[in-house]
Design goal:
about 290 residues; alpha/beta; Arc Repressor Mutant, subunit A; D-Maltodextrin-Binding Protein, domain 2; 3 domains; 7-stranded mixed β-sheet; about 45% helix
Length: about 290
């Protein structure tokens, strides 16, 4: 039999997470030798080298990264099994619920959804992590088994990773944001940040000959808003990012051709059917149907 045991899956995840056989052994209460033998057994069963061993510790190979991601997803389903079975009998929704969200969604969308979720299902224990929506973003966290559901931007130039499914929540528009009272705000430097979804604005951006060449780079959208409020420049920002715009900032309509982006959720086909994720999606849709969608 070449089936991997649950114990072996937990060891693979621990080694990938800690980057060391010794650290994984300490975390799991095992000997370093037991961890090493277990990893070697996994490699024989899988037929691929999962970790590069050396003075640097244990670095996952591409095969190891994929194996660890699948292991996390399998272990998550095993951990959810008791609560799912009880919930089928009692209709109670309990257990942890791991959520990854980019900053502005975590600030403006999740509080309403999680308040409603707690009222309806007090036995759920949401765990929220802020994950920048760059590169693989929140969808990558879901694919890697680190999150049950991610709040993500959908439809950009980067396709969703394999093994996940998505649903739209609402469309948000981009606006011109500039300091109050400036006589010519379009003459100001353009302030941007890495997470700003250029894939949604790129074609529109290239057609705007009024956008200045001078640009300032900021770390995140809240910093951009603060810099605009202090008169340091202007910005092109999505609606979620400007919901808390101070009175010293003007949020101006960019017209009918303004860019938009879709905000939605990402989960896995297996977790999409679990009670906790289904309940969260319902509450996210309810929160999105309120002022955020106006």
């Amino acid at each position: 039999m070449n089936d991997l045991a649950v114990r072996e899956l937990r060891i693979l995840v621990a080694v990938e997470r800690t980057g060391s056989f010794t650290a994984a052994a300490e975390a799991l209460g095992l000997t370093q030798s037991a961890v090493s033998h277990a990893v070697s057994a996994c490699e024989r069963k899988i037929g691929a080298v999962l970790f590069d061993r050396g003075r640097h510790g244990a670095r996952p190979t591409p095969a190891g990264e994929r194996a660890a991601a699948h292991s996390r997803r399998i272990l998550r389903l095993l951990d959810a099994l008791p609560a799912e079975a009880r919930g089928a009998a009692t209709r109670e929704v309990t257990g942890p619920l791991r959520i990854a969200a980019f900053r502005s969604a975590a600030v403006h969308l999740l509080p309403t959804a999680l308040t409603r979720l707690a009222a309806a299902h007090p036995g759920l224990a949401p765990e929220v992590r802020i994950v920048p929506e760059v590169g693989r973003g929140t969808a990558g966290e879901v694919q890697d088994g680190r999150a049950d559901l991610g709040i993500a931007t959908l439809g950009g130039s980067t396709p969703l990773p394999d093994g996940v499914l998505a649903g739209a929540l609402f469309e948000e528009e981009y606006s011109l944001v500039h300091p109050v009272g400036h006589p010519d705000p379009r003459s100001l430097p353009l302030i941007d940040w890495t997470e700003n979804c250029s894939s949604y604005t790129r074609s529109w951006w290239q057609q705007q000959d009024w956008l200045p060449a001078a640009r300032l780079d900021a770390g995140e959208d809240s910093v951009v808003l603060s810099m605009v409020a202090r008169g340091m420049g202007m910005a092109i920002m999505p609606r979620l990012a400007v919901l808390d715009a101070p009175a010293s900032v003007v949020v101006a309509d960019l017209g009918a051709e303004r860019p938009t982006r879709t905000v939605g959720y990402v989960t896995t086909p297996e977790l999409a059917g679990t009670l906790g994720v289904r309940a969260l999606i319902r509450e996210l849709r309810g929160a999105a149907a309120g002022p955020l969608a106006a």
